[in-house]
Amino acid sequence: MIIVKIGGNILDNPSRLHSFLVDFSKLQGPKLLVHGGGKIASAIGQRLGITPVMVEGRRVTDAETLELVTMVYGGLVNKQVVAQLQALGCNSIGMTGADANAIRATKRPLGAVDYGYAGDVAGNESINITALDAILQAGLTPVFAPLTHDGNGSMLNTNADTIASVLATALARKYRVTLMYCFEKKGVLADADDEGSVIHFIDQQKYKELKVAGIVSAGMVPKLDNAFAALNQGVSQVLIGEAEALLSIEETDTTFAGTTISLN
Ligand SMILES: Nc1ncnc2c1ncn2[C@@H]1O[C@H](COP(=O)(O)OP(=O)(O)O)[C@@H](O)[C@H]1O
Ligand SMILES: CC(=O)N[C@@H](CCC(=O)OP(=O)(O)O)C(=O)O
Fold first, then answer.
1. Which residues sit with their C-beta closer than 6 Å to ligand 2?
2. b or e along 122-153 (b: 16 or more beta carbons within 10 Å of the residue's beta carbon)?
3. Separation of 251 CA from ligand 2 center, angstroms?
4. Using CA positions, which residue lies closest to atom 18 of ligand 1?
5. What is the pTM of this model?
6. Which partner for 220 in 2, 22, 30, 216 could form a disulfide, CB atoms 3.0-4.6 Å apart?
7. Which domain covers residue 103, as residue numbers?
């Protein structure tokens, strides 16, 4: 099966989002979509007087921000994506981690930074594989917002790249899983300003070198950490590339134009 994560810069661009959803709806076999929306939450928050605070790519989520992200990710973004997929004939079901008890998380413990209502997912035991599999077997396509719950009545905000990685890992017990991170660039780039500088293969050693050299930074660091975590736990293939490259991954005679992640 294929699990696709779509990032904030595509969600924010109606025409790129629409063409991505057209392609996604054409994918054969069981599939699952995870969306972000951090950029949209920040913009709507600012209209409501809530200033975004990000530390190392993660949002500091106080009680007010938790209400904001629950409305924006679980409501606006999730339902707009599901409605567009329905119009394309892809029968999808919008979900958060609370729905069907799909993903339980624990509030991140207090450290140097208090991330507030940000949730970490412990492992496969936190994912309701039985419920997810029943949804997939019914021919439905789950569309996940980046929200989890704590089992005690509270929603938690969880990075969308992490949601994609933990779902891929859990479903790898039953399916052969390809995980693709789709974003606005052609892949992991050697030079952030040059779309022609895609690094086609990254293993763990190369990743260390790229980090030390400062070539991968910001949001790319948690994305690659999540990519290696998935491969280390049974996911068959992890790809990072532009949203427009999605359908090429099903073509056996085309080499992937983005970045392929491998353990070694
Ligand atoms: N070497 C790199 N190649 C490509 N993008 C990079 C690189 N290093 C850092 N980045 C940044 O990582 C971002 C992708 O991470 P993130 O913002 O979490 O994306 P999204 O949520 O859209 O998937 C890119 O928009 C880019 O600014
Ligand atoms: C805890 C945490 O940081 N959650 C993220 C969830 C959204 C997200 O990951 O969106 P993108 O994929 O578009 O960046 C946030 O609120 O920004």
1. 7-8, 36-39, 41, 58-59, 69, 118, 146, 157-160
2. eeeebbbeeebbebbeeebbbbbbbbbbbeee
3. 31
4. 219
5. 0.97
6. 216
7. 2-261
